[in-house]
Specification:
154 residues; mainly alpha; 1 helix; 0% strand; rod-shaped
Length: 154
């Protein structure tokens, strides 16, 4: 008798589980590959759809940058013009103030000269009166001295 069985060998529990797992694994691999391909296709579709929107957004950004640069240049030009106007007005005011100051100085100098002349005249008058008075007093004193010398002393 031979030791080889005549009927097919029945598979054990673990071998059946192993085959089931292998079948599930193969199915899962196939499904994962299908999902991966679908995801790649979807990514390509979205990329193609987004490209025009991206270009449009880039154009809008470029247009906005250009507008901002133009506005900044315009504002800068206006500011420079305003500064020049203010400076011109300030220069005019400074000239006016200097002219007024020169006018006031001229008037003050004239007033000082006038007052000085009056003071000199008054001083000359006072000196003349004082000289006259001094001459009169001196003459009177000489006369009194001469009269006193003529009188005998007692």
């Amino acid at each position: 008798m031979s030791k080889q069985p005549t009927k097919p060998e029945e598979k054990g529990f673990f071998e059946k589980v192993k085959e089931t797992i292998e079948e599930l694994w193969d199915g899962t691999k196939d499904k994962a590959e299908d999902i991966k391909e679908a995801a790649e296709d979807k990514y390509d579709d979205i990329t193609k759809k987004a490209a025009p929107a991206k270009k449009a957004a880039a154009k809008k950004v470029t247009a906005a940058k250009t507008a901002v640069k133009a506005k900044a240049a315009s504002t800068t030009a206006k500011a420079k013009t305003a500064v020049k106007d203010v400076k011109a007005k300030a220069d005019t005011k400074v000239k006016e103030v200097k002219a007024k100051a020169a006018d006031v100085k001229t008037k003050a100098d004239a007033k000082v000269k006038d007052i000085t002349a009056k003071a000199k005249t008054a001083a000359a008058d006072v000196k003349a009166k004082a000289d006259t008075k001094a001459k009169a007093v001196t003459a009177k004193a000489k006369t009194a001295t001469a009269a006193a010398k003529k009188k005998p002393v007692l």
